[in-house]
């Protein structure tokens, strides 16, 4: 699989297929930065998938295209949720609602690291679990950084666990492709509670 880290594909959202008959929704499993996340199923194979549904409006169209690009190009790594595809559910203009993008990726059935911490309540998470999760996060980040991509929103909710305890990074809605010549980003973005004090003014 050839990957050119410096080049992002031009994506025309209007050319995406309708998800009807391909994927079906089962239940809501979470809320992301730009929409709800559902547990879904591929109609023909019954394979489970995570389906992030976002309303498409002009203000967020570029971020949506960026997330699709990032997933298409970099989700072939074991520590990044595998991208299965993107679909458009067209809504009648008479409803006054925006069309919906269905971003379909690997389903991580054991939830997020945040869920793991909350479920352990009184007891703390074992140190070897913490070490394992941190190592796997770093492997995923190393893969992204090798391709000049920064995630910019690493937090417990964006680190998911599969049923076989694999660690997967998700939510590339605010990630960035670094400029090849400079290799830095001077903009700040992310979740305020998960950043260093010096970044908040």
TrEMBL record:
ATP binds at residue 52. GO terms for cellular component: cytosol. Transmembrane segments: none annotated. One of its GO terms (molecular function) is ATP binding. It comes from the Eukaryota. Keywords: ATP-binding, Kinase, Nucleotide-binding, Serine/threonine-protein kinase, Transferase. InterPro entries: Kinase-like_dom_sf, Prot_kinase_dom, Protein_kinase_ATP_BS, Ser/Thr_kinase_AS, STE20_Ser-Thr_kinase. Pfam families: Pkinase (PF00069). Residues 23-201 form the Protein kinase domain. PROSITE patterns: PROTEIN_KINASE_ATP, PROTEIN_KINASE_DOM, PROTEIN_KINASE_ST. Belongs to the protein kinase superfamily. This is Protein kinase domain-containing protein. It comes from Ancylostoma ceylanicum.
């Amino acid at each position: 699989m050839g990957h050119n880290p410096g080049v992002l594909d031009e994506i025309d959202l209007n050319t995406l297929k309708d998800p009807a008959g391909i994927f079906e929704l089962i239940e809501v499993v979470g809320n992301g930065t730009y929409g709800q996340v559902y547990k879904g199923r591929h109609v023909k194979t019954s394979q489970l998938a995570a389906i992030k549904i976002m309303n498409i409006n002009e203000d967020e169209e570029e971020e949506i295209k960026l997330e699709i690009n990032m997933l298409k190009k970099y989700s072939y790594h074991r520590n990044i949720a595998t991208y299965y595809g993107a679909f458009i559910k067209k809504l009648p203009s008479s409803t006054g609602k925006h069309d919906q993008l269905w971003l379909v990726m690997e389903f991580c059935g054991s939830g997020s690291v945040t869920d793991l911490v909350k479920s352990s309540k009184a007891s703390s998470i074992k140190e070897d679990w913490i070490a394992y999760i941190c190592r796997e996060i770093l492997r995923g980040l190393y893969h992204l950084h090798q391709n000049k991509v920064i995630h910019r929103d690493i937090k417990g909710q964006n680190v998911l666990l599969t049923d076989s305890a694999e660690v997967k990074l998700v939510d590339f809605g605010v990630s960035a492709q670094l400029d090849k010549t400079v290799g830095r980003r001077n903009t700040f973005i992310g979740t305020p509670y998960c950043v260093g004090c010096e970044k908040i003014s």
